[in-house]
Amino acid sequence: MSSKARPSKGKGNRPVIVVAGESDYDRQVLRHLIQSVHPKTRIANIRKKVVLTEADKHLRPRVDEIRRLADTAAVGSELTGIVVHVDLDAVDDARYTKVRERIASELSNTFPCPSALALAAFETEAWLMQFPRAFSKFDSGWTLHNKYRGCDLTKVDDPKRRLTEHGWKTSYLVSHAPKIMENAFEEDGTLMKPDGKNRSFQEFMDELSAW
Question: What's the pTM?
Answer without folding.
Answer: 0.92
